[in-house]
Amino acid sequence: MKALKKRVCGVLLIATTLVAASATSGVANSRSQGAKFAADPTTLVDTSIGNNGDGTTFPGAAAPFGMVQLSPDTQLNKYASYDYAQDTILGFSHTHLSGVGCQTMGNFRFMPTTGAVTSSDPAQYGAKFSHDNETRSPGYYGVELDNGIKAELTATERTGQHRYTFPAGSDSENVLIETGQSNGSTYAGDIKVVGDDTVEGWLQGGNFCGETGKERYRIFFSAKFDRKFSTFGTWTDSTLTPGAREATRGTKRAGAWLSFDPEEGDQVGTSVGLSYTSVDGARLNRKAEQPKSFDKARAGVHDAWKDELNRMRVAGGTTADQRTYYSALYHSLLHPSIGSDVDNRYRGFDDQVHRADSTYYQMFSLWDTYRSQNQLVALLNPDKATDMAKSVLHVYQDGGWLPRWGLGNGETNVMSGDPITPWVVDLYNRGLLDKSTSRQLFDALWKNVNEVPADQSLFRGRDGNPTYVQNGWVAYQNLPGYTYGDSRQAGSATLEYALADCALSTMAGGLGYRDKAATLASRCDNFSTLWDSSVTSQGFTGFPVTRNADGTVAGDPDPTQSGAFHEGTAWQYQWLAQQDPQTLYGLMGGKDKAEQRLDTFFDLPTVLADPAKAAEESWVTGAYDYHNNFAFNPNNEPDFHTPWMYTWTDSPWKTSSVLRAMRTLFTDDAYGMPGNDDLGATSSLLVFAMAGVFEAQPGSANYIVTAPMFEKVEIRPEHGRTITIEAPGASASKLQYVSSVTTSKGKLRQSWLSHENLLHAGTMRISLSEKPTTWGVDAAPPAMGATAARH
């Protein structure tokens, strides 16, 4: 299927207007008709985008940021448990993480069957299906299986709603429920048939990316059916016991089956409440959110998604453009997930149940989301962003440290660096945190950037701090037992720490902590401690290297080899110094030399001649091909900001060229996401790129302006004023450049807007040119350390 993806990518740019001619969504494609907003943007979302093995998204039903993601499973122990290439559904489970590049979750799998129940193995009771018989839309999934059973799924925030229609003449109508086997490993589980219409249970899970023995969370469910059971039974592993009401996981499985009398109807429905606190919590959530009917639930979640998608709606472009854009926006707003019950009770990182004063969120893929998705949530849903910040504060208060990659109420310690710091600082610099929350979070962040947890069994923290704080770089050390240890990825960890410290210096300055601000600001340029002017590659001199504690180079300094740079090489990581591009470019020999290096990195001559060819052939194209490359990797987070690094050169127009080329990698089919989505990180990158604004310096709360790909973008933040971006003639299929920008406040004389200025921009009119312009030259955002110094 890789060949199919390459073919689609290669023709998209030249055929994009032809795609629109055959589309059926009803969006106006002819610019002579004027750019119009879609009446219902949910019709432009295809939840199958990224359902291949690379994108790792799921097609099922979820509410925005909901606890429940109810979706079909076609495979176990891999990714989001759904692969578009498969033809068998094993069941419908209630929890999924969108775009994670490894197996996890997939809890509480339900499956309708007919006939006698003879096996607990999903390989035996699974059913064939065809994509032609699937119906997908935000908050709804339906499929008619080849055996004639129709399954429909929808969701509220904390419940999954099922409706199964069995074929006429069925001799038995069954629903099988598996609690002992998930997509991620399950370590314990229990199920109980309660009365004649309810089933409840729990499981212990928490492995991540192939780990074993990591029991990070316990999750509970309560399912009430709309018909009484005629018979029932349970199983443990492969042993089925008719009439039994309880079962406990053995070595592999635990489950129950419920049978219904066909004489009483051909449809069975169930409402399933989830909770991370208790069965009582699951039951409470189910009762509180139980809709009057399946159709009412479907209508409610549809309206919720319509509202969310209309927060950043677009007009103009082709139908393919709009389908790609709105599907990315949809994927951007699935996580973080609600973790608290309707009464705000949640299970903390101390494994105790607490009550928050607002909605508690969990599932924080911070290394990924701090670069793009965090900013989108903060822009569109500031109230939720505030609650998310309070949630990580609860993690600190309950567990003693801030998370890096939080799975349920447990820390995975996956990835490297210090993503939580710029993630929090971005919300602070947007004015979303009150004084008390700000000060408490700063104290937690200050501890995080200077210390190391005494017992790293739960939180690893910044394990490179001892050498970093002393020397300015993380010394390479292959720590046993830590696949993702910062000392093992010492090169990239140093760069991530420096960015985080520089961001935190702005928060320290804002809070009046002058000495701490100065200390942190002095670390802004710690990326320079890795710079080795003797290293050459591709005709350029000077690259970051990994160092030992004594300052000597650790390993091979070849910048095209990954070495101790996490999921990348020094060629790709050299740009992770966006907090101070001027100093970085000085190390490179000046901004002209830096621009030439960027041109090589992106293969700019090919970008300008054939954008799709550059993206497909010159850049890194494999979703997991992180290693031993010197070219731009648009599939992975460390490179997300690099197209905007032209902002600090004399040719900021080149950013728009690269973004048009990047756009060709995203298509409106199942193979249309170039890399795994990482809880909306990749999708958010595309949303901002197509809208024409993006924060390239995480923590700064400053948006760089580029050429939009739609004629009109309307941003309607929750409780905020409408922001309109108008770009007459904008097209994703043309190389276009900004020639001037005006807002309701007048002409914009710099290439960026602060978050506050964007919120008050009113109508922003961007004039475009098909020839390079000088707009934005010498008008780039300031270095972040300079911002701290001004406080």
Can you offer a commentary on this structure?
The protein has a domain at 67-306: Beta-galactosidase, Chain A, domain 5 (Distorted Sandwich), CATH 2.70.98. Helices cover 29% and strands 21% of the residues. The protein is built from 22 helices and 37 strands. The radius of gyration is 26 Å and the shape is globular. The N and C termini lie far apart (54 Å). Mean pLDDT is 93; it is low at 1-33.
Strand order of the largest sheet: 7-8-9-10-19-14-13-12-17
CATH hierarchy, class of the domain at 67-306: Mainly Beta
Strand content: 15-25%
- Give Rg in angstroms: 26 Å
| First-to-last CA distance | 54 Å
Helices and strands: which structural class? alpha+beta
Low-confidence stretches: 1-33
- CATH names the topology of the domain at 67-306 as Beta-galactosidase, Chain A, domain 5
What's the number of extended β-strand segments?
A: 37
Mean pLDDT: 93
Could you estimate the helical fraction of the residues in percent? 25-40%
How would a textbook summarize the main sheet? Answer: 9 strands, antiparallel
Shape: globular
Q: Name the CATH architecture of the domain at 67-306.
A: Distorted Sandwich
Number of alpha- plus pi-helical segments: 22
Topology at a glance:
Blueprint lengths: L1 H21 L38 E2 L6 E5 L14 E2 L1 E3 L15 E6 L7 H4 L1 E2 L5 E4 L2 E5 L5 E6 L3 E7 L7 E6 L7 E9 L3 E8 L11 E9 L5 E6 L2 E4 L3 E3 L5 E7 L6 E9 L3 H11 L4 H16 L2 E4 L3 H14 L4 E2 L6 E3 L5 E3 L5 E2 L1 E2 H4 L3 H8 L1 H18 L5 E3 L2 E2 L8 H10 L5 H16 L14 H7 L18 H21 L3 H8 L9 E7 L2 E5 L25 H4 L7 H7 L3 H12 L1 H6 L1 H8 L34 H11 L17 H11 L1 E2 L7 E4 L6 E4 L7 E4 L10 E7 L2 E2 L4 E3 H5 L3 E7 L14 H7 L1
Parallel strand pairs: 33-37
Antiparallel strand pairs: 1-2, 2-4, 3-6, 5-11, 7-8, 8-9, 9-10, 10-19, 11-18, 12-13, 12-17, 13-14, 14-19, 15-16, 15-18, 20-32, 21-24, 22-23, 25-26, 26-27, 28-29, 30-31, 31-36, 32-33, 34-35, 34-37
